[in-house]
Specification:
This protein is α+β, with helices and mostly antiparallel strands. It has two domains: 142 residues, 2-Layer Sandwich (Gyrase A, domain 2), CATH 3.30.1360; 62 residues, no CATH class. Helix content is 37%, strand content 21%. A five-stranded antiparallel beta sheet has the order 1-2-3-9-4. A two-stranded antiparallel ribbon has the order 5-6. A hairpin with a 4-residue loop joins strand 7 and strand 8. Helix 1 packs across helix 2 and helix 2 packs across helix 8. The termini are far apart. The structure holds flavin-adenine dinucleotide.
């Protein structure tokens, strides 16, 4: 048995995260064959006619043939990204448990502390917030990044103290910040994956989860190149 490491084919995301494709079933021909089973026909290789069929299926929301293609991913992301991700109920998930294991001191430090958007209550803007903020631990103005790291480190330190005092892992973890990294496996079919990517690659989604959505699209492109090409065209993403 080995520790849960980053797979060699993983795409690195944020400062310590990644997404890797662990396994998959099917490709573009799986989709056309699922659609054509109605007529008792199948192909082994994609043709121009098959590309047209995929375009027709995507355009007319004939979605079930895309459900025959499946992907399993290994994801490492901050807890707040995980919360957004797990709202997508059509995925199957299994996650590392902080009841079974001690949480590692690994938390996300943004490369830029984006400003709150003045017009969209749930969004940020691509501009750095003031460089300094009040650090409650030191009682003085500190560079924002230092105050943030200090806060995360203190939470982790307190977590360790609670464990040392004999507090159960399942309770001690409650003091840990949303920035802590977690890892999970997620399995999903192509139809629901494209739905996820469309919602989470969108500029209205949080920047951090957008980075994961972009990586997912990159990972599946060599497996279903025709579908991705046509889907991007139809969504105006080219
Ligand atoms: C930019 C953005 C902001 C968001 N902000 C918030 C927020 O402030 N608060 C919040 O709570 N959530 C928020 N969400 C989450 C959002 O409401 C959805 O829960 C999430 O995007 C998952 O989408 P989904 O249900 O379509 O996906 P999935 O759960 O994967 O479902 C796919 C599709 O299957 C069908 N489906 C699945 N389960 C059911 C069901 N039980 N009943 C009926 N149909 C079902 C639906 O057609 C659904 O679209 C936000 C999402 C985005 C992208």
């Amino acid at each position: 048995m080995k520790d849960l490491d980053m797979p060699p084919n993983a795409i690195k995301i944020l400062d310590k995260g990644f997404v890797a494709l662990l396994d998959h079933m099917g490709d573009d021909t799986t989709i056309v064959n699922a659609a054509r089973v109605s007529f008792g026909k199948r192909v082994d290789k994609m043709s121009e006619k098959d590309e047209k069929l995929i375009r027709y299926l995507l355009k007319n929301r004939h979605t079930s043939p895309f459900e025959h293609v499946q992907f399993q991913f290994h994801i490492k992301c901050p807890l707040f990204v995980r919360s957004q991700w797990h709202r997508h109920r059509t995925w199957s998930y299994n996650e590392i448990s902080s009841r079974y294991t001690e949480v590692k001191e690994e938390f996300y430090v943004p490369a830029m502390f984006r400003k709150q958007s003045p017009s969209n209550k749930q969004a940020s803007i691509e501009e750095p917030a003031d460089e300094y903020c009040f650090n409650v631990y030191e009682g003085k103005e500190t560079p924002t990044v230092e105050a943030y790291i200090e806060s995360c480190k203190l939470s982790v330190k307190q977590y360790r103290e609670l464990l040392k005092a004999g507090v159960a892992r399942e309770l001690a973890r409650a003091v840990l910040p949303q920035a802590m990294y977690t890892q999970f496996y997620g399995t999903v079919d192509l139809h629901n994956l494209l739905h996820f990517i469309e919602l989470r690659i969108h500029p209205h989604a949080q920047w951090e989860i957008q980075q994961y959505a972009k990586a997912l699209l990159e990972l599946i492109t060599p497996i279903v190149p025709v579908t991705v090409k046509i889907w991007k065209e139809l969504k105006g993403m080219d």
